[in-house]
Fold this protein.
Amino acid sequence: MLGKNSMSLSYHFNLIESATVQCLGSVLAVAGDSIGQLLPEITVSLTKLIRASHAEPGLRAVALHSMQQALLQQNVVRDEALLKDLWKAVKAGMVDKFWFTQMKATEVRHVVDQV
């Protein structure tokens, strides 16, 4: 009985994490240009989430999508360290076993190439 409840709790925690990252992406899509100074911190946090081995594949894909939405609002990425973090996230997503994460990483790569 305890195993079923803990699995249920873990499942709900993953849903909450995924929803939080999705909301972050939506906020960045709408107000990304006005909170551009936070982009390096957001990118580092999302990169850590993408590279985490314990993160659910769907959560990694949502994190890449949020990163893509943030980058679409920025015309120029001025920080070289930020570009390195973006490339780390893209590389981690491209070698993921989950095809949807690979697809989102490819989309982020195209956005990074345009910026």
